[in-house]
Design goal:
194 residues; globular; alpha/beta
């Protein structure tokens, strides 16, 4: 059995640690060996953060070799562009529409790239563009955008819906459970592989 490599990128405050934990726990419950890591030292709101989940029959390291990531779950567009070099040629980018301007852009020392989705596609990668923040807002709470992205991702991983729901129940506050499950289910249905 081969190893599946998932890279998660974003900025502080987007729920990357929770998303990484949910993916890793789902893989574990499905019987896979897993290794995971989060780099959150820069996790002040707006700071760059990333994580990885690797699962398979036997996994020895959480580090994904360059060019071997199967999926990049990008919670912020610029972070998606920053990390897409880690994908294999057949890799997929699940790209949130969310934009968080870094300090250098706010200080007008750099410009935020336009049409990041197009730039990534020009590298030969498949992009699944997800309006996670907009959909989460329509559901009533933008904080479920990370779970919305996981619903999209769930279509590309071999875990049962029941496992995803069980794991989400263990990670989100009970008072937000129904909303998180709704966000997950809507995204899974909307972005189901054709």
């Amino acid at each position: 059995m081969s190893i599946t490599n998932i890279l998660i990128s974003g900025v502080g405050g987007q729920g990357l640690v929770l998303a990484t934990g949910v993916i890793a726990e789902a893989a574990f419950k499905e019987g896979y060996d897993i290794k995971t890591s989060d780099v959150i030292g820069l996790s002040q709101r707006g700071g760059m953060v990333w994580g990885s989940v690797r699962f398979g029959e036997k996994v020895y390291s959480a580090s994904i070799p360059k060019g071997e990531a199967d999926v990049l779950l990008a919670m912020e567009q610029l972070e998606g562009l920053r990390w897409c070099h880690m994908l294999s040629p057949k890799g997929k980018v699940i790209l949130s529409e969310d934009i968080v301007f870094p300090n250098r852009v706010l200080l007008e020392k750099e410009e935020y790239p336009e049409d990041i989705s197009k730039i990534i596609k020009e590298k030969g990668l498949e992009v699944i563009y997800v309006q996670a923040k907009e959909r989460a807002k329509a559901l009533g709470n933008i904080k479920v955008s990370n779970i919305y992205l996981l619903g999209t991702l769930s279509n590309y991983l071999p875990f049962s819906v029941e496992t995803w729901i069980e794991v989400i129940k263990g990670f989100v506050p009970p008072k937000t459970l129904d909303l998180n499950i709704k966000a997950f289910s809507e995204a899974r249905a909307e972005y189901a592989k054709v």
